[in-house]
Amino acid sequence: MLNPDVYIALVIVFFIVVIITVFCVRAMKKDKKQEQKILDEHNAIKRDLVYHHSGLSISEGARCTIYLCNDKFIFEHETETINLSFDKITGVEKVENTEMSSERYSYLFVFTYSSDNETKTLKFYLPASNYAGFMILWFNDRKKQPAKVIDL
Description:
single chain; alpha+beta; PH-domain like; 152 residues
């Protein structure tokens, strides 16, 4: 038979675990609501944090946020916002970082687009955890299917 003090200790541990679990669940719900609020503010489907490689007038390695919207990508860095319409984009891909100017990032998120009758690219370093694959699939699917117009 166990000592009564052991039972009390087990009950205390149980309640501590329950309290910690409740706080963790609440924090996750709050984070999810905050993420949805940010997406709603940008009318976006998904967002991802990346680091600038080239193509924008900001320094290499600068932290940027990419928003995937229904008809464009939005690139934000501090107070600067750049919109890139799907109509201008000729390709979006995730490629291996063969330049290895940064050992930390083995992949680049590359956007090829037309502007002023010129082909240009935007490149971003991808951290290990990212939504680039989802964004590429979503964009390619959207590009293939022209919008339907129904007159009634």
